[in-house]
């Protein structure tokens, strides 16, 4: 099974990348064929249509997403929405090639507001791509972090459960 982990914050010191690095490390321990797209480091071109001239990083990211069986997506909440960088990344994905995949969602915010709205929007996006979404998303705030690491054991366990549950759903669909 191929797994892709996506950290959807473009900020250099993104809290989302801390969360998703933890998810990646855990997913990689469960499934060797796991890749990581970190939008804090991997610069994805602005989508200009199917005939655009895109960098190798952008083309490889789109290929990795399309080929993956499982998507583990983490996004910050910006202005009551998921990151525009994530939306831009998914502009490259052909929905005709993604049916039957499985996704798990993790959402980072500065406070306890807006999680359900963003989960709903992400689930709708996954539905457009015909991707089955694990209903148990993880909501995390910056209070769960300390010195660039996840400090709350309960949060770590919820992220592990997200990975395990999403991989379990995907294995049942095979």
Proportion in helices: 40-55%
Question: Looking at the structure, what is the overall shape?
Answer: globular
Average pLDDT for all residues: 94
Number of E-type strands: 9
Structural class: alpha/beta
Distance between the termini: 9 Å
Query: What is the CATH architecture annotation?
Result: 3-Layer(aba) Sandwich
Give the low-confidence spans: none
Please write the string of helix (H) and strand (E) elements: EHEHEEHEHEEEEH
Describe the main β-sheet briefly: 7 strands, mixed
Which fold does the CATH topology refer to? Answer: Rossmann fold
Q: Give the percentage of residues in beta strands.
A: 15-25%
Number of DSSP helical runs = 5
CATH homologous superfamily grouping: Flavodoxin domain
How many domains?
A: 1
Q: Radius of gyration over alpha carbons?
A: 15 Å
Report the top-level CATH class.
Answer: Alpha Beta
Concise synopsis of the structure shown:
The protein is an alpha/beta fold and 174 residues long.
How does this structure look, described?
With 174 residues, this protein is α/β, with parallel strands linked by helices. It has helices at residues 15-30, 56-67, 84-90, 115-128, 153-173; strands spanning 3-7, 34-38, 70-78, 81-82, 102-109, 132-133, 138-141, 145-146, 149-150. The strands form two sheets. Strands 1, 2, 3, 4, 5, 6 and 7 form a seven-stranded mixed β-sheet that branches. Helix 1 (15-30) packs across helix 5 (153-173).
